[in-house]
Amino acid sequence: xxxxxxxxxxxxxxxDYVAGAAAPLxxxxxxxxxxxxxWELRAQREDLAISHxxxxxxxxxxxxxxxxxxxxxxxxxxxxxxxxxERKDRRRANLANEFDETVEEIHTLVEDIFDGNVxxxxxxxxxxxQSALTFLISLDRKRSPTQEAVRVMEAAAQRxxxxxxxxxxGEDTAPALRALDRLLGxxxxxxxxxxxGSARTASxxxxxxxxxxxxxxxxxxxPEYR
Length: 226
Prior knowledge:
The protein is of the alpha+beta class. It has four helices and four strands. Strand 1 and strand 2 form a beta hairpin.
């Protein structure tokens, strides 16, 4: 068998010659194409594996970030709660201090106004004539100023018939009595608040302050003097 194909003489032999020569080239092209596809598929698998690892890493990072964000949110929430509680504590302390200071100021004012002073006089409701009966108070220093003031004011009020007479503040003491009335109102407001301090102490003071304010309400604190 000859190593080289003889040159064809006829047209059909040329066709067979070309087909025989192109067949190895076609086979070689198929092999090359398969190899190229294999390499491309391998590269794609590697890319997919890398993408998969990246997605896993991103998910882990996202999970860690979410956990950190939650910890920060919890920390911020705890800080806010602490600050809010501190604000409430400061407010309670301020209200309690204001209540104590107001009560102390009331006690001092009561002692200054009521101890041995003429608080007012009885005035006829029909004729407007001032009575000679004056409202003189002396406090017992051994008792609470507010409690003692309530006691002696109630005792003095019983000396006048409320149908015909009314108690009128004296011209010298009326401004101080009006100031006392305002302080009593503020102290009662603070004592009513649960943030003002001890409930038992606040209730006790509130009871005495309310009684004193009720006693003051029996006196005309804004009279017209002639």
